[in-house]
């Protein structure tokens, strides 16, 4: 575990008065926010998965080359080897996984894991020879082939691991494998947690600061060398700027009211939230815990889409988005021509909206209003027979053809998904109140990337949000989508979208 270079301090005096402590923390928070670097964190789970695939290919190719160089000139092609090579390769990957050699710590220090790799690789061939013996296949498989594959395969694994270690260490130095972390809580519990994390040299946590609602002698300004940057309200904004991955609560589980109040504020963030259990007197069964290094934690909230799910959703967006762009291109050309002929002005309309993590994005639409009356902030909702909307604009809004240029956002800019909560304009209102004023926890819908279509839209909550109930129902659908996301859920929503477009009573 290492402190974030911009935020950590090595000394400081706690026990400051409450007012001055709060002021000092906010100054540190402002300085830390200015020094933040963009997050480019790579998932350790994805790296491990990709390496399993790479190692399997290396072993299979190695065995195929040995077969081609030694056996093929003598016996030609034998189906038995076509079955044995993939089977032994798969068994090797499973065994190496069982021996815990597919962890970042193992990748970073391959020499210390040579005994495990050797044991796993040897066990694989012992099992293979056992199967050959009991099935009386001694005359089918060449012992020289098997022995050569064992020796060369082991060398290939170790050499590849050494090359991987160089890359992993480089990524570690550049912070690409860090989990950006904040600690909530002060005093003895937070200090003990921080010292324990710092003692773990294999930890991938990078501590970006400590936050606590208390500014008195119970919670000093500096804890275990880390500055207290503010309270939980400050953390809410800081987490978005820092792109935090994890928040750990260092609070006693008996502080239920305080814990719930903080969770209510933080649950809108796209982060993991855990409660450290290392100092809890109340003990659960070991399987109830997960571990961060040697620290047992209770997982309270997880990122809705993480690790391989991010990869799957990215592939879905790029592949499906590209196909839709090609298929719908003639329709888009005709729509653009109609917009251009109907009224003067540009074909496309750009609008600022909230995206993932509350970040501002710019989406593309076909212009549906007269150019001098366009409303970039959506401060005034479009209503039935709105005089600002052109005749072509009414048609393309009802049929959602005006949304088609957002495929450019999906395919080229990457700030939209095909499926997700619809991005709302910055100043959109319901009954003259901003959406986040109407719905408690409104920004929780921004824990995932927004989409062109979504669960709310296919359930009839598209178009005008002139009442508070409509935006509340839309947000409820968005949160249901986030909590229940799967790739098949995206496929279902996409398949049902054309049928939902028939419902045009709220689309003006």
Indicate the overall shape.
flat
User: What is the oligomeric state here?
Assistant: single chain
Which parts are unreliable, with pLDDT below 50 for 5 consecutive residues or more?
A: 5-19
The count of DSSP E runs of length 2 or more, i.e. the number of strands, is 15
Helix percent band = 40-55%
- What is the number of helices? 16
How much beta, percentage-wise?
5-15%
Sheet with most strands = 9 strands, mixed
Distance between the termini: 54 Å
Taking all Cα atoms into account, the compactness measure Rg is: 28 Å
Mean pLDDT: 83
Instruction: Quickly give the structural class.
Output: alpha/beta
Task: Give me the secondary-structure topology.
Layout: E1 2-3, H1 18-34, H2 44-75, H3 79-98, H4 104-108, H5 114-134, H6 143-173, E2 179-184, H7 187-199, E3 205-211, E4 222-223, E5 226-230, H8 232-242, E6 246-249, H9 256-266, E7 272-276, E8 290-292, E9 295-301, H10 308-342, E10 348-354, E11 360-366, H11 391-398, H12 406-413, E12 417-419, E13 429-430, E14 433-434, H13 435-438, E15 451-453, H14 455-458, H15 468-483, H16 487-500
Parallel strand pairs: 1-3, 2-3, 2-6, 3-5, 6-7, 12-15
Antiparallel strand pairs: 4-5, 7-9, 8-9, 10-11, 13-14
């Amino acid at each position: 575990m290492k402190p974030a270079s911009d935020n950590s301090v090595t000394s400081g005096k706690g026990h400051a008065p409450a007012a001055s402590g709060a002021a000092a923390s906010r100054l540190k928070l402002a300085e830390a926010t200015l020094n933040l670097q963009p997050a480019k964190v790579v998932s350790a789970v994805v790296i491990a998965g990709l390496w399993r695939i790479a190692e399997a290919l290396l072993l299979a190719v190695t065995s195929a080359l040995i077969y081609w160089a030694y056996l093929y000139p003598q016996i030609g092609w034998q189906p038995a080897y076509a079955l044995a090579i993939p089977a032994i390769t798969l068994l090797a990957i499973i065994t190496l996984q069982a021996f815990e050699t597919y962890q970042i710590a193992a990748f970073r220090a391959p020499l210390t894991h040579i005994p495990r790799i050797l044991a796993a690789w040897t066990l694989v061939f012992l099992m293979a020879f056992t199967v050959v013996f009991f099935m009386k296949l001694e005359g089918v498989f060449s012992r020289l082939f098997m022995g050569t594959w064992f020796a060369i395969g082991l060398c290939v694994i170790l050499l590849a691991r050494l090359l991987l270690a160089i890359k992993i260490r480089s990524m570690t130095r550049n912070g690409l494998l860090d989990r950006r972390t904040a600690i909530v809580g002060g005093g003895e519990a937070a200090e003990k947690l921080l010292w324990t994390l710092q003692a773990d040299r294999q930890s991938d946590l990078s501590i970006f600061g400590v936050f606590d609602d208390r500014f008195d002698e119970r919670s000093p300004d500096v804890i275990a060398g880390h500055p207290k940057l503010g309270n939980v309200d400050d953390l809410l904004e800081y987490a978005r700027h820092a792109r935090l991955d994890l928040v750990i609560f260092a609070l006693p589980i008996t502080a239920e009211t305080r814990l719930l109040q903080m969770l209510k504020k933080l649950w809108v963030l796209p982060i993991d939230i855990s409660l450290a259990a290392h100092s809890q007197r109340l003990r659960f069964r070991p399987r109830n815990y997960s571990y961060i290094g040697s620290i047992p934690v209770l997982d309270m909230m997880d990122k809705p889409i993480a690790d391989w799910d991010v990869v799957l959703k990215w592939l879905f967006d790029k592949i499906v988005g590209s196909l839709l762009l090609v298929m719908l291109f003639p329709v888009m050309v005709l729509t653009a021509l109609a917009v251009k002929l109907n009224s003067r002005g540009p074909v496309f309309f750009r609008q600022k909206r909230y995206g993932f993590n509350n970040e501002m994005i710019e989406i593309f639409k076909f212009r549906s209003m007269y150019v001098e009356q366009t409303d970039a902030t959506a401060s005034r909702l479009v209503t039935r027979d709105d005089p600002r909307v052109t005749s072509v604009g009414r048609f393309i809004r009802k049929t959602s053809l005006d949304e088609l240029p957002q495929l450019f956002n999906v395919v080229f800019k990457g700030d939209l998904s095909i499926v997700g909560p619809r991005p709302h304009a910055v100043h959109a209102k319901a009954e003259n109140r901003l959406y986040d004023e109407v719905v408690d926890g409104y920004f929780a819908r921004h824990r995932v990337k927004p989409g062109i279509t979504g669960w709310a839209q296919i359930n009839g909550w598209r178009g005008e949000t002139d009442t508070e109930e409509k935006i509340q129902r839309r947000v409820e659908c968005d949160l249901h989508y986030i909590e229940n996301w799967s790739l098949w859920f995206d496929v279902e929503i996409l398949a049902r979208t054309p049928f939902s477009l028939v419902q045009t009573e709220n689309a003006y």
